[in-house]
């Protein structure tokens, strides 16, 4: 399966219909949004997660969108995403294809005339979307993040070969065919392994991450 | 000065030739790198998308381990060849300093692992160390096989210069170009030095990932480059290993050798191709052939 903004929108629609929304309501909601359906706190939440009240100073100049190497593949450019967040369009921002395309090259962040950390804004949206499971089934970007996260929490290191295998199994096992050429090439040149890498003191990693969990819970409560 | 070395996960698998060539080059120059003991994942891009503070905590564990290994009150330099690890280590240092609430949580985590991070450590990229500490004079005097006539596209990628690094320009870096000149080769002038290679997108949103890489290779060819060199294991992987797939997707042949900058330096120092992991590349740069003319 290939992924682009149009197919992403299709699966977003399927997800809403799965959740009991009728196709007509979905269609109408794309055009008309009532104030009561917006989340007025969303802007503040994202600004907090992305470390900066500067977020509110955006002048909508579009420098981020023009400097972004993938903006032309997006459904909403970074400039639009910022406008949406500020107005409380939480569902649309989290449900956008945009956030998964950001590869964190930081071009927007260093060019923004108002010094908004746009890459961090994208991370904040990804964190929220993953926590709320707002993405199509089997969509690879959040699944890659989750697999990576689990792998590192368990062993302290990422095992690249395993990560790619697990990603394929959880998204589309047939995609392994597409990567067969690269995989065989890596195998031939001694650059591929399915061995589970790990740190020596795995207990340290667990102690570290558990303590962070506890501290984060305290901060929240 | 003590240089500790934080390889990161990639340099032990897909980026093996980077580690091999890096260690060979630094030991030839008499600047040995001591591997960081029990290092862990840097926290990377994917981790950041789930829990940012945990990413900082993982990264801070490495920084704390490095300070410990460097010895009391010493200021160790942590050489970090992978651009993602480099960027995230710098980001961690920066954010821990800037945001006390993040530092508080991270410190709690480090304490639970019996570690402490003061912030005296310096995170460096080997490109920066090679050119600004070792120096181009020393590099060029170690050259045994000048790479005369070789045209090289120096590709820096994004995270080595953005947003926290300070050793070069964020848009038009020249450190690697000057290094290549010191080896006797000619860097080609091209505008895509720091444009995104596609990152992890080649494994997820494949078409977009392939397209980003293809544009870079196409431009490098257009500018007459014989080969492209990189400073990051993910850039190297994206640009080299998917060339056949790019041809399949877009119909245009973009075949070009893509090596690590350390492999090129090592070759000109006369280190054997085997030791530099050159045979581990998909597309052989055939360096021995090119340098015959020089």
Describe this structure in words.
The complex is a heterodimer of chains A (221) and B (294). Chain A has 221 residues and is an all-alpha fold. Helix content of chain A is 61%, strand content 0%. Chain A has 14 helices and no strands. Chain A has helices at residues 5-18, 23-31, 42-49, 63-67, 78-87, 90-94, 98-101, 107-111, 118-131, 140-155, 160-171, 175-178, 180-188, 202-220. The longest helix of chain A has 19 residues, at 202-220. Chain B is α/β, with parallel strands linked by helices and 294 residues long. Chain B has two domains: 3-124, Up-down Bundle (Glutathione S-transferase Yfyf (Class Pi), Chain A, domain 2), CATH 1.20.1050; 136-282, Rossmann fold. Chain B has helices at residues 16-28, 44-48, 52-70, 83-98, 100-112, 126-141, 175-182, 206-222, 233-241, 243-250, 261-268, 287-291, and strands at 3-5, 34-35, 77-79, 122-124, 151-154, 186-187, 227-230, 258-260. In chain B, the strands form two sheets. In chain B, strands 2-1-3-4 form a four-stranded parallel beta sheet. In chain B, strand 5, helix 7 and strand 6 (186-187) form a beta-alpha-beta unit. In chain B, helix 6 (126-141) runs parallel beside helix 7 (175-182). The mean pLDDT of chain B is 95. Classes of the chains: A mainly alpha (221), B alpha/beta (294). Chains A and B meet through helix 8, helix 9, helix 10, helix 11 and helix 13 of A and helix 2, helix 3, helix 4, helix 5 and helix 8 of B.
């Amino acid at each position: 399966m290939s992924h682009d903004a149009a197919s992403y929108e299709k699966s977003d629609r399927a997800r809403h219909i799965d959740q009991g929304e009728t196709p007509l309501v979905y269609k109408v909601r794309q055009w008309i949004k009532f104030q009561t359906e917006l989340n007025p706190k969303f802007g503040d939440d994202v600004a907090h997660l992305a470390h900066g009240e500067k977020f509110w100073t955006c002048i909508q100049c579009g420098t981020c969108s023009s400097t972004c190497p993938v903006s032309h593949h997006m459904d909403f450019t970074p400039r639009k995403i910022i406008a949406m967040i500020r107005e409380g369009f939480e569902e649309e921002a989290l449900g956008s294809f945009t956030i998964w395309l950001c590869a964190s090259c930081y071009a927007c962040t260093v060019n923004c005339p108002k010094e908004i950390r746009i890459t961090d804004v994208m991370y904040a949206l990804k964190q929220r979307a993953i926590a709320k499971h707002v993405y199509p089934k089997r969509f690879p970007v959040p699944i890659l993040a989750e697999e990576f996260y689990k792998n590192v929490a368990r062993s302290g290191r990422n095992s690249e070969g395993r990560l790619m295998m697990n990603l394929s199994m959880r998204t589309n096992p047939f995609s392994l065919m597409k990567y067969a050429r690269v995989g065989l090439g890596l195998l031939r040149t001694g650059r591929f392994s399915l061995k589970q890498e790990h740190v020596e003191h795995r207990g340290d990693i667990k102690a570290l991450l558990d303590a962070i969990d506890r501290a984060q819970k305290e901060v929240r409560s | 000065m003590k240089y500790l070395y934080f390889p990161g996960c990639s340099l032990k698998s897909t980026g093996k030739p980077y580690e091999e060539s890096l260690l060979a080059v630094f030991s030839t120059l008499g600047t040995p790198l001591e591997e960081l003991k029990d290092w862990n994942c840097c926290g990377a891009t994917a981790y950041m998308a789930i829990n940012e503070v945990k990413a900082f905590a993982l990264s801070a564990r490495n920084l704390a381990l490095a300070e410990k290994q460097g010895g009391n009150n010493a200021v160790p330099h942590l050489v970090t060849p992978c651009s993602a690890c480099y960027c995230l280590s710098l980001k961690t240092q920066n954010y821990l300093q800037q945001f006390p609430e993040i530092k508080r949580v991270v410190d709690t985590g480090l304490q639970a692992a019996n570690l402490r991070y003061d912030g005296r450590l310096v995170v460096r990229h080997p490109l920066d160390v090679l050119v600004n500490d070792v120096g181009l004079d020393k590099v060029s005097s170690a050259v045994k096989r000048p790479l005369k006539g070789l045209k090289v596209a120096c590709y820096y990628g994004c995270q080595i210069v953005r947003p926290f690094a300070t050793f070069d320009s964020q848009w038009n870096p020249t450190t690697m170009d000057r290094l290549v000149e010191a080896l006797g080769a000619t860097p080609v002038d091209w505008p895509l030095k720091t444009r995104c290679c596609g990152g992890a997108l080649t494994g997820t949103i494949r078409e977009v990932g392939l397209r980003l890489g293809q544009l870079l290779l196409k431009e490098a060819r257009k500018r007459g480059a014989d080969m492209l060199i990189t400073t990051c294991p993910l850039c190297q992987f994206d640009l080299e290993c998917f060339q056949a797939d790019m041809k399949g997707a877009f119909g245009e042949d973009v075949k070009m050798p893509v090596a690590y900058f350390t492999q090129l330096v090592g070759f000109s120092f006369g280190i054997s191709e085997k030791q530099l992991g050159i045979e581990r590349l998909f597309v052989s740069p055939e360096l021995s052939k090119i340098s015959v003319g020089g």
